[in-house]
Amino acid sequence: MSSIKNISAEQRKIYVNPYAWVVIFFVGCYLLYVLRSVLLPFVAGILLAYLLDPIVEKLQKCKMSRLSATLVVCLLAILIILPMLLFLGGMIENQVSLLLKATPKYLGLIMEKVKPILSCLAEKFPDLQNSNIEEAIKGNIGNSLKFVGRVLKALVSNSFALVNLISLILIMPVVTFYMLRDWKSFVQKVEDLLPRKSKKNVIEILQEINVILSGFIRGQISVCIILGIFYSIGLRLVGLDLGLLVGFVAGIISFIPYVGSITGFILGVVLAFAQYGDISHVLYVVAVFMCGQFLEGNFLTPKLVGESVGLHPVWVMFALLAGGVLLGFLGLMLAVPMAAIIGVLVRHSICRYKQSTLYLD
Fold first, then answer.
1. Handedness of CA 327, 333, 339, 342 (dihedral sign)
2. Is 207 within 8 Å of 73 (Cβ atoms)?
3. pTM beyond 0.85
4. 178-206, pLDDT tens digit by residue?
5. So where are the chain's domains?
6. CA 20 to 30 Å from 269, out of 23, 58, 88, 247?
């Protein structure tokens, strides 16, 4: 009996030892970094299951079994997402081919508009010659286009990237289905592993994290889709040939605060100036993005995302950039959940600190 007691005491020491948890944390981060190339379909499937779980819960309330509700939700997701992806793929391909065809024309128009400015620079700075400046501009633009071409060629020819894409398409739906079907059992198993003394507090923290994640991710996806549609339609009505592509790009990266609108604004202004060469169409593009920002700031973000999610735009931008640098596209997917978790833990730690004797004394 004494040996059993000694073993259980040692086990308790291991479990409550903070250094052991630190080691486990860093080992988990290292494994995440090493396995980042194969984790994408699994993480994507888990995130998609997390987003679809409330729909399954509502169907269960309508007297459907968990399996039946999961099958219905997965079928509806396929019927909605697959045609959307096919439509977007065809639209993007059409717009990219149009961009490649129109690039020489746009470059010529831009150089014609820039020549008066170059002449003024040559008069003020005699050492600068128009021909040298034009050759430098054309050379830089040509090198940039060649670099983009090499990157696209590498992406297309890279077998590993194709394997990742195929695995994402094939594995992600399977992971989503099983996670949706067994979501409650996974949650129950996690709750059973929580320490009994602090179980109530930990569950409260997890619930707060869930509220922030659901409010931010689901709301931000809705904002990105609405803004992408708004910018695409607005720029096409203005008459911009590549309006659909610019609007799609501006909408899809609007989950990064300010980056989507600024990128779309710059692309739209440059393309409008290259296509028409007048200030009126440039002002039309400016008006479209001003309306989009007004719509986002006053209606979309307050209604769909809410102001109580507790994620500051600067913190979100830092998390996305850090995640992208460390883990690539996988890091972008994990950035916001990790930022929300860290934010909640920091807020609770500050509350604990302000209630401690260290702060009060």
1. negative
2. no
3. no
4. 999 998 888 888 888 887 887 888 888 88
5. 1-34
6. 88
